[in-house]
Amino acid sequence: MKNQRISSELISENNEAALKHLQEDYDHLSTVLSRQNIDIEAVTTQAQAFEIAVPSWGVGTGGTRFARFPGIGEPRNVFEKLEDCAVINQLSQCTGSVSPHFPWDKVDDFTELKAFSDSYGLQWDSINSNTFQDQADQALSYKYGSLTNTDAATREQAIAHNLECIEWGKQLGSNRLTVWVGDGSNHPGQQHFQHSFERYLDSMKTIYSAIPDDWELHIEHKMFEPAFYSTVVQDWGSNILAAMELGDKAKSLVDLGHHAPNVNIEMIVSRLIQFKKLGGFHFNDSKYGDDDLDSGSIHPYQQFLIFNELVDAEARGQEGFNPSYMLDQSHNVTDPIESLINSAIEVQRSYIKALIVDRAALSDCQERNDALMASNTLKQAFNLDVSPILAMARYRQGGAINPLQTYRQSQYRAQVAEVRPSVAGSGSGIV
Amino acid sequence: MKNQRISSELISENNEAALKHLQEDYDHLSTVLSRQNIDIEAVTTQAQAFEIAVPSWGVGTGGTRFARFPGIGEPRNVFEKLEDCAVINQLSQCTGSVSPHFPWDKVDDFTELKAFSDSYGLQWDSINSNTFQDQADQALSYKYGSLTNTDAATREQAIAHNLECIEWGKQLGSNRLTVWVGDGSNHPGQQHFQHSFERYLDSMKTIYSAIPDDWELHIEHKMFEPAFYSTVVQDWGSNILAAMELGDKAKSLVDLGHHAPNVNIEMIVSRLIQFKKLGGFHFNDSKYGDDDLDSGSIHPYQQFLIFNELVDAEARGQEGFNPSYMLDQSHNVTDPIESLINSAIEVQRSYIKALIVDRAALSDCQERNDALMASNTLKQAFNLDVSPILAMARYRQGGAINPLQTYRQSQYRAQVAEVRPSVAGSGSGIV
Amino acid sequence: MKNQRISSELISENNEAALKHLQEDYDHLSTVLSRQNIDIEAVTTQAQAFEIAVPSWGVGTGGTRFARFPGIGEPRNVFEKLEDCAVINQLSQCTGSVSPHFPWDKVDDFTELKAFSDSYGLQWDSINSNTFQDQADQALSYKYGSLTNTDAATREQAIAHNLECIEWGKQLGSNRLTVWVGDGSNHPGQQHFQHSFERYLDSMKTIYSAIPDDWELHIEHKMFEPAFYSTVVQDWGSNILAAMELGDKAKSLVDLGHHAPNVNIEMIVSRLIQFKKLGGFHFNDSKYGDDDLDSGSIHPYQQFLIFNELVDAEARGQEGFNPSYMLDQSHNVTDPIESLINSAIEVQRSYIKALIVDRAALSDCQERNDALMASNTLKQAFNLDVSPILAMARYRQGGAINPLQTYRQSQYRAQVAEVRPSVAGSGSGIV
Amino acid sequence: MKNQRISSELISENNEAALKHLQEDYDHLSTVLSRQNIDIEAVTTQAQAFEIAVPSWGVGTGGTRFARFPGIGEPRNVFEKLEDCAVINQLSQCTGSVSPHFPWDKVDDFTELKAFSDSYGLQWDSINSNTFQDQADQALSYKYGSLTNTDAATREQAIAHNLECIEWGKQLGSNRLTVWVGDGSNHPGQQHFQHSFERYLDSMKTIYSAIPDDWELHIEHKMFEPAFYSTVVQDWGSNILAAMELGDKAKSLVDLGHHAPNVNIEMIVSRLIQFKKLGGFHFNDSKYGDDDLDSGSIHPYQQFLIFNELVDAEARGQEGFNPSYMLDQSHNVTDPIESLINSAIEVQRSYIKALIVDRAALSDCQERNDALMASNTLKQAFNLDVSPILAMARYRQGGAINPLQTYRQSQYRAQVAEVRPSVAGSGSGIV
Question: For A377, B76, C138, D243, which has the most beta carbons within 10 A of its beta carbon?
Answer without folding.
Answer: D243
